[in-house]
Amino acid sequence: MIQAAEKKRRRSPINRGNPVAKALIYIFLLIFMISVIYPIYYLLMYSVSNYGGLSTSTDPFMLYPKGFTLKAYEIFFSQNYIHTGFGVTIFRTITGTFLTVIVTALTAYPLSKRDLPGRKFLIWFFMLNMFFQGGLIPTYLTIKNVGLLDNIWVLVLVPLCNTYYILLLREYFEGLPEALEEAAHIDGASALQIFAYVILPISIPSLMTIGTWVFFTHWNSYFDSMIYISSTAKHVVQVHIRRLVIEQNNMLMASTIAVSGGKMDQPTEQSMRAAGIMITIVPVLIVYPFVRQYFSKGMVLGAVKG
Predict the structure, then answer these.
(1) What is the CATH number for 139?
(2) Residue 92 vs residue 175, higher pLDDT
(3) Which is nearest to 173 in space by CA: 151, 199, 197, 210?
(4) How many domains does the chain have?
(5) Residues of the chain above pLDDT 90, percent
(6) What is the pLDDT of residues 199-225, one digit of tens each?
(7) Which residue has the higher pLDDT, 267 or 94?
(8) What Rg value do the Cα atoms of the chain yield, rounded?
(9) Smallest Cα–Cα separation from 282: which of 66, 62, 41?
(10) 245 is a domain residue
(11) What Cα–Cα distance (Å) separates residue 264 from each residue in 67, 73, 76, 130, 256?
(12) Cβ of 207: how many Cβ atoms within 10 Å?
């Protein structure tokens, strides 16, 4: 099998040094890279452009700023609710990710044991809840009855248990060698000690993969904050950005112009929108290079046993 793979590799046009094949591949990768990077670059250039430059420019590609101003960012960060929104977003992202990973591991590990009483029933129970849910209104009424409305913990507790992650991690735990647990059991370790000191350390890459998915899900979520939170100080930053972009552009622009007394050096409504988007995606762009490897690992998580 190894020899066949080696022969196939040698027959590949790339390995034979075919310049046409290499050129086509590099061109494709270059186009793909530009299609990913250019929208972010476009938003950045637009966010620092001013009214005077945009009104006189006919260049649709925004390869450089049309004029230059940072007032769009100044307007955003001068609002107190942006600071509180970032605090709530960071709280729900870090706390929610940590708790979700812990709950997922604690649920998936027992389900991976074939001698667990009622194991099949529990697995089917989780799977049914993954495909059939009560809906928004029953969920809202439940949250209201338990007193979690307008409480930032609702942003952490409602998405705490994800069936897909549980089943995925269960498959991974089933693939671990049983000899590891048997050796620890012979040494006198309890089930909890085996889980904490044997299973979790060797499962860190898988837990990091799930944690990465949960992290970005929490960071990008805003709909639950709109539904369950009524206090402005408890909203996530995405809700404030959305309100600013959709509802308050005219008000902010009017107040800015009134204060400065000018217009040509002010940001436009589109610049404000671009700046709002950049504020929310820059933290993700900073974090992503450090967790990129776990995305590729997550594609095969639980796919191979033995």
Answers:
(1) 1.10.3720.10
(2) 92
(3) 199
(4) 1
(5) 23
(6) 998 888 889 889 988 998 999 898 999
(7) 94
(8) 26
(9) 41
(10) yes
(11) 9, 17, 19, 53, 12
(12) 18
